[in-house]
Protein 1
Amino acid sequence: MALHDFIGRITNLTVSRKADFGYFLTDGEEDVLVHNNELQEELELDQEVDVFLYIDSQNRIAATTILPEITVGTYGWAKVSDVKPGIGVFINIGIQKDMLLGEEDLPVHESVWPEVDDLLYITLRVNKNYRIYVKTATDPVITDISVKAEASDFNKNIHGHIYRTAKVGSWIYTAEGFKGFIHESQRKTEPRLGEKVEGRVIDVKDDGTINVSLIPRKQEALDDDSQVILSYLESRGGAMPYWDKSAPEDINDRFNLSKASFKRALGRLMKEGRVYQEEGWTYVKKENNEPS
């Protein structure tokens, strides 16, 4: 096999000669350079060494003694290192050269493209011009590495990374190894590919996969909504021109809450004695619970 056939893979070569800028390695027919900055230790003539082959910026085969876990046909988790709109995202597989996940293999909408430090489960592919590209894991690949959830996992809090996204929903691989689906109705916004999200198990299916919701439980949502109201009150010195009879559109514009959510959170704050209402306004109560 020619050296081109090992691009994106690890192969064993022999040191043929030393140069000022590195070493030339050979398979007996072709030579390839491993640059000094791709060495982990000094090499000796005739030494056999395992290297990873790739194409450098000048379209030449190059080698590195830094061996990535992710190669052609081998999957692993890797972080996004850079995002180039209109081109794709670059991913760090552990060597100095980052690998490209092209825009044609990313979601149509750039708003759900991965961001720097998002995590993807990937392998490498080589095109007909011997360029290496990133390939994200498909459903069958994720199925192979996943474990089955049990009925006892129902309502459990989970976190994981999005490995596939679509308008109808998002697919997640959790820290426990569960494969899950997040229906569009169970998320406030569409998560990015590779984004880490937190949610809860709302169904364990017969095949051991799970359905996940990213919407907080009512009690958790109430806590969040109450804090939104309190923060706004504090920013205005303890008074705001909103109460439980305010128009729904005004509430949504100011707090990004439905009127029902706003009334529940406000009602809780009043029940706890933290706020009170008067003539269309809401006020923070003093610590002694007397009106301010």
Protein 2
Amino acid sequence: MVTPSGLVLLTDRRLASGSLLDVVARAVRGGAAWVILRERDLPYAERRALAVSLRELLPPGRLIVAGPDPLGADAVHLAEADPLPVAGVSLIGRSCHDVPGLSIEDYVTLSPIFATSTKPGYGPALGPDDAALLAGEVPWLALGGVDSPERAAACAEAGARGIAVMGAVMRAADPEGVTRTLATAFGAARAGSAGRR
């Protein structure tokens, strides 16, 4: 099972500095390895069409849909309260803010790792090391406030499989450059950590 790693982009069309498709395309050019389609408030047909368009920007299997309906594909990311999806989904993630209580999920996002301007007052911030302790052996993505190379590197050094980024890329005037900076810092720190083990 391939689980998300590297820089995982979460969409938010309301924060996007341009059209959502353009911002995502630029982030993918900058090194976003996976995309989680949020936009849960869109009507079903519109959201499904958006999923189809986003899949065209990514390697096969790299679009994950937030919620239990994979919108015609086979990867979902669930909120803490979402039910498990019906059969036929091969990759399942779940958002967690504490010790993951999982059944068949393949990975989790833990948040907030750092204080975040996207959700001010949301927290308290876990910090990378405490998030790693909460995750235990579960593959995890660091979410929340990962908006600098230093923070990306700290997450890698703590053992995160990847960083889940929304606001820093969605709001950026240069989504490609911001993505490349964060993805490069994370990758270098992860490689360095692996070399020390």
